[in-house]
Amino acid sequence: MIKERRTAAAVENGTLADEAYLAVRERILRGALALGEPVSSRGLARQLGMSHLPVAQALRRLESEGFLESRPRAGTRVRIPTERDIMERYEVREALETQSARLFAKRATEAQRRRLSRTAQELDRMFGRAARGEVGSEFFFEVHRFHFELHMLIAEGANCEALQELIERNQILTFNWFYDVAARLEELPPGFHQKLAESLVSGDEEQADEAMRAHVRNGRQDRVRRIEQRTQAGSRYGAWRNTVQSD
User: Fold this and answer.
1) What does 13-57 look like in DSSP terms, one character per residue?
2) What CATH superfamily classification does 83-227 receive?
3) Tell me: the pLDDT tens digits for 128-173?
């Protein structure tokens, strides 16, 4: 009987921890918890109406995935990526997504090719509206999410589950790191995503590889610069490493 009760409790804690994980990650992705912002497990537990344990478990998971960082006697904060973090993430993403593009060009069905073309057209319209300042922060978040979906469509069409899983993990981190600093979306060339889709739909593997490589590299240095600017502007967190954060 005791064993059964413990098992049920473990299942319940696991479910609550998953719930807390998704709730906190959503706040980070939306910029409600900004880069460098201190995170209190007890404060979040109160806000989410949960006990401390599942929230603490969720924060440990978010830290292991690179969303958060902790220091002894300094507490936890939303991670500010270094230049090296960003460049290495880009290198991994380029390797994964160029292979995904090649396989999409070779293996995707006609239905998947048509869907990619439609999604790319809609994404370009969304970026255009955002760049013209016609919309607010909620729409910016939707643009980022739609962009993520476009890349997952390509991975799905590549028809390689292991590759799809790796790209999804990599994209989540990229999405997290850049949403906050890219709340003002840069203006892209006309038909930016449509041209990428056309290269992949063509069936030419070399063309697909080249197009995806250029797509991933676009604006990379600018994003690094903007991260650095944000870090400097947020210098009020500079004492974080030496400050005891009270829960």
Assistant:
1) HHHHHHHHHHHHHHHHHTTSS-TT-EE-HHHHHHHHT--HHHHHH
2) GntR ligand-binding domain-like (1.20.120.530)
3) 887 777 777 778 888 888 999 999 999 999 999 999 999 988 887 7
